[in-house]
Amino acid sequence: MGSLQSVVEFILNLGAAVFVPALMIIIGLIVRMKVKDAVSAGIILGVAFLGMNVVIGFMIEALTPAAQGLAERTGIQLTILDGGWTSMATLAWAWPLAFLMFPLQLGINAVMLAFNATKTLNVDLWNVWGKILTAVLIVGVTHNVYLAFIVAAVQVVVELILCDANQRQIQELNGIPGVTVSHSMMIFCVVLMPIDWLLKKIPALRKNMDANALKDKIGIFAENHVMGFIVGLLLGIAAGYDVAKALMLAMQAAAALTLFPMVAKLFMQALSPLSDGISEFMKKRFKNRELFIGLDWPILAGCSEVWVAIVVMVPVTLIFALILPGNGVLPFAGILNISLCAPALVVTGGNLLRMIILGVITTPVFLYVATFFAGTITDLANSTKAISLKTGQEITWSTIEYPVFRYVMAEASRFSVAGLLMLAGWIVLLVFYVKAMRKRTAELEQLG
């Protein structure tokens, strides 16, 4: 057990920007790529991840103070702290059994690949903390460790099912063949799909409204740098910034939205030869089989629609926090809701208007589930001492990832009638989603 924990700690200490490229180089060599091509692709992939993390960090660092300033201007007085994803990751890794989630995820993935139950090899090992957090929340609700690992195992299976279902749409969005997003946040797609299906019944919302389509309609105002400037300026004004600070935020947002597509091209440069090599290898040795590589969500971060939707959701989230009865959390560290906007991008195919509408409809879900789990998360913080809290202070995550799945699993783990009925309903939504995405995949394949 100690040696396994040491291996896990070694992998974590390497960091995603080192381990994932190294793993991809090994995969490239296994599928008979030339050594120089495999090494080059792996290094460029590391550069792409680091570059995207730098730009994302720059964007978040610029936007978060403005969002927090807007929160202060609203005068919202709520008692539960928002620790954001970094605090939740800290708490998850503080769980003594956290390291066991690695062999669980790898084992399930290997078995499903062996039995042709998935096409995805998930190499995004760092985000295993999402499964750990789910397990910890289940332990907090049920005090049953076995149930916690069962739910985590279910989450791994669901992730892989969604990886396969989403792959063609993700390829359409980022232009990179053979890769998919294995981050757990994609589980929220299951809830968004039926709402989007209803929205598409409205003729005006069926029209293509991604960034490229907007360029045809409104010209320069849909260019990434101009769109970023406008959105940043409006947020700065809403936050009460003076002219100089508002203009600086506008330029920072413009810079970020301009740089995202540039860095995203590095993913294509790195992953395209790897994808081609894997495809040729599979054709020669395993006829009629494909293999997708599951990666973290930043392979979608080059889509400007994600960032426009994220910024638009800031005031929406604050308004809901102010008016929703029963909400106790003040959005702060987690106020930029990537957990909503990245899945919405996939579900809508990049339709910005429907992404924003989906955000308005579902934002209350995040706040209510965050409030629901506040006690459990606070108990974990106090018991592990990973985060210091004042006596009586509660903490949560205002934009907690895949909130419906976690809430449903928590209630179902209590074996209450309501919880089991919700679980049955969620499974129906999953089946509906997979069928809808398979149909979309066929349509996209026909279009070429």
UniProtKB/TrEMBL annotation:
What keywords were assigned to this record? Cell membrane, Membrane, Phosphotransferase system, Sugar transport, Transmembrane, Transmembrane helix, Transport
What InterPro entries would the database entry show? EIIC-GAT (IPR013853), PTS_EIIC_2 (IPR013014), PTS_sugar-sp_permease (IPR004703)
Q: Where in the cell is it found?
A: Cell membrane
Question: GO CC terms on record?
Answer: plasma membrane
Task: Name one matching Pfam family.
Answer: EIIC-GAT
Q: Which residues cross the membrane?
A: 12-31, 38-60, 93-115, 135-158, 178-199, 220-241, 247-271, 292-323, 329-348, 355-375, 415-434
Stored PROSITE patterns? PTS_EIIC_TYPE_2
Could you name the domain of life of the organism this protein comes from?
Bacteria
Which segments constitute the PTS EIIC type-2 domain?
8-435
GO MF annotation: an example: galactitol transmembrane transporter activity
| Topology relative to the membrane | Multi-pass membrane protein
Annotated GO biological processes are: phosphoenolpyruvate-dependent sugar phosphotransferase system
Q: What is its main location?
A: membrane
Protein name per Swiss-Prot or TrEMBL:
PTS galactitol transporter subunit IIC
Organism encoding this protein: Listeria booriae
